[in-house]
Amino acid sequence: MQRQYTGSAGKITNCRIGVFAAYASDKGHAFIDRRLYLPKSWTDRPDRLRAAHVPDDVRFATKPVIAVAMIERALEAGVPFAWVAADSVYGVGEVEKVLRRAGKGYVLGVTGTHPFWSWGEALIAGTAEEIAQTLPASAWARLPAGDGTKGPRLYDWAYLELADLEAEEVGCPEPSAWTRGLLVRRSLSEASLAFFSTWCPTGTSLEVLVRVEGRRWAIEDAFETAKTELGLDHNETRSPRASPDARTGGDGAGACCAGWDGWHRHVSLVMLAFTLLVAIRYRANATVPPPQSAPSEPGRRWSEGRSRSFAVSPAG
């Protein structure tokens, strides 16, 4: 455990934080990768790492670095995906580079202070917030970012194409033209703004980018289901292999002793169970219901003859 900020609680609290990757499609969504995030107060303390049975080769890694590693593993495994969506916690930088080289589109959340610029006939430069404030009313379109628990999640959206680049300019092996852009989302109730750096094949419509950004809701839905139905957040806190000093907590060295193995095993089992439920639900919804039985003959008495339930003896 470590006092740190967690989005689920919306504050700094004593908790563990995991970085997750989810796969989303029209057939459903499920987690495909995970890793426990260790703050520097842990990775700088070899005694803590040993007490929690953290592997020797684990070093401090920021959440964006962990995310890049997950994307690279998905690429190496041949996971068939075309887009990546993420919130501003994961930033851009290395995430952008690995996706551009792989020929994958993205919609990545950024803060309002993130700089954007264009080149060409219409020059645009400034922070995301500054650029959004200059947009005319005609630049906005109201579109749903998918369905939520209360129906379509409607927002106002604006999209600016900033630059066109050829694939070879960014190291992408497949020849094609790509567009770098800025996507802005405005809340209908509070008029608050959210900003996204985009990378997509030239000619991609605003509707497609909005649908991609809306896919991020899938991982929030997955977290809620996994916690309430499968006990994602109910894993044991201490490892049975932890030393007596670690189990008592002491100076905090054993406070996260669920250690590395315990956390990853529990989370992996929940991920597997969640995936099975998604597959079962998809197959159940896709199965064509059997045809209804033919209507009975007029005046036919169903009491005639022995019923099938009585054709077998109780012993059978």
What descriptive keywords fit this protein?
316 residues, alpha+beta, 6-stranded mixed sheet, two-stranded antiparallel ribbon, 30% helix, disordered C terminus
Q: Number of helix segments? A: 9
Q: Estimate the mean pLDDT confidence.
A: 82
Strand tally, please?
A: 12
Number of domains: 2
Helix percentage range: 25-40%
- The assigned structural class equals alpha+beta
Catalogue the unreliable spans: 239-257, 299-316
Which percent range describes the beta-strand content?
25-35%
Overall radius of gyration: 26 Å
Shape: globular
Largest sheet: 6 strands, mixed
Q: What is the straight-line distance between the termini? A: 57 Å
Order of helices and strands: EEEEHHHEHEEEHEEEEHHHH
Placed side by side, the strands forming the largest sheet appear as: 5-6-12-11-10-9
Short description:
This protein folds into 2 domains: 130 residues, no CATH class; 128 residues, no CATH class. The chain has 9 helices and 12 strands. A 6-stranded mixed sheet has the order 5-6-12-11-10-9.
